[in-house]
Automatic annotation (TrEMBL):
Protein name (database record): DUF1501 domain-containing protein
Region entry Disordered, spans: 1-21
Signal peptide: none
InterPro entries referenced in this protein's UniProt entry, alphabetically: DUF1501, TAT_signal
Amino acid sequence: MCDTHHKSPHKGKDHEGHDLEHKKWSRRSFIQALGIAGSGSMMLGSNFLTASAPSPLTSAIAMAETDNILILIRLSGGNDGLSTIIPIEQYDVYANARPNIYLPESKILRLTDEFGVPTYMKSLEPMWGEGQFKAVHGVGYEGQSLSHFTGSDIFANTDLSTTGFSGRDTGWMGRHFEHLYPDYLSDFPGSRPEGPAAIQVGNYGSLVFEGEETNYAYVTNNIDQLEQIAETGLQYSLDESLFDSCMYSDQIKFLRGVSNVTNEYAGKIHEAYMRGANQIEYQDNGFARQLALLARLIKGNLGTKVYMISLGGFDTHGNQPLVHERLMTQLSIAVDNFYDDLAFTQQDDKVLSMTFSEFGRRIYENGSNGTDHGKAAPTLFFGSGLNGSAFVGEHPSLDEPNSRGNLEYTMDFRNLYATVLAEWLCVDIPLVEQHIMDGYKYTPVNLGFNCSGVDFPEITYSDGQPTPPSPTEPTEDPSPELVNAIVHKPYYPTDKTPHIYLEMPFTAHVDIQIFNIMGQYLGSVFNEIMLEGSTEINVRERLKTYLASGKYIYRIQVQDQKLSKSIMVA
């Protein structure tokens, strides 16, 4: 590689062209010369290398007073929103537009009187009942692109002027890096975070974590590679002989810096993997394996606050009913298992997941039992931190599509992104608007969490399941005094037996009942007068009914007030 007798117009270091070459060299141009611009990753021989370091955003996230974690779920190909959230009030129009692929009413799980999901997404039903599922209607932007590549870039770089191969080549999670962290590949103390700032599974060219000089995420080609790193701590390094003095020494030193960062974080990932453990059995498919590994890294306290995973196959021009059912079944089961897994360590309320896709699909079916590229589509949010299930925003009208049969957007995607940054990851609003959203003054969306103290517009929360009523939705809202005064939480000692910790600031009659996820009453584990103080209730000891492994709900009734939470039984 460092042979000075190469066949080029400039032979050796002693010539005018050598100096000119180094004046023009930059890390970005070097990556571009290797044909890997925009990926932040490279192949060296058969080894995959990537750099991971903090951007101003990830630095702000790291310094923010929050332990919250964000998981971005890419539905690659353009997810069909009308097969994900069915507008029951517009059902006739929906069915007439799709005579061969519409979902019959018998296959719709009604979550409210206005909206439902396909029954093949029924694994999300308990999450809905427990206040862990929100759907935001009509997400898109003005002049939405119907191109896979341009659409992906716009959702990543937030630049609505992007067309074709033009547009910003940095992402919303990776702005303004070089002037704040010029030595991010060095070994200087504090030049990078102890754990990866972000982890991305799937090297599909997303700009989300891209900065001016490199990609800020620890990127692996696929889940197989990340699993190998997590299990073995396998590290790739460059032979020291490559760093002998030669005309490409600067480039080689850059490669060494990338390798050093990659190796360092491989070890951190392995350590977290060994500390964590899955307590739920996941399905054996690629998407479920991604979430299973993320759960283990989170439970192992890796420290990474942003993850990005993907589920492909949503470009459903043909055979959409079967394809969409398979994909959304995988997603629903895996997401439910993921939050059940995190509940064992009480981390489910610290992890927010959100879906995104490059565009939606049209109202009308095509001639191949599918749908073509369209515009607006829903964004799905999951996690206990949502503090209630709801449909948010205005669903686009099916009666007024544009000339191509597209749903018009009713929610600018940048409002969602900025809200997640400011209110979930607690990044200062001026930083979000100036650097991340490139001057865009966003309108905050009430998603159920609030870090900045901003006033949200009011939204109406769903009333949960039809019948039987979910015990997680009390018939009367607890008074503020009781909510603030009574402390209760599930916890799991070393023998994994579920316990309930209860702390009462006054004497009162307390009734704690157990329900399964279908809302069926199983029995009471505590029904007596409790004096001021605290107590611990062993659920298995107190409940005479046998409890199989899985998720249950306990409801505490004090006077006329009811409080509920989920609890796991191993």
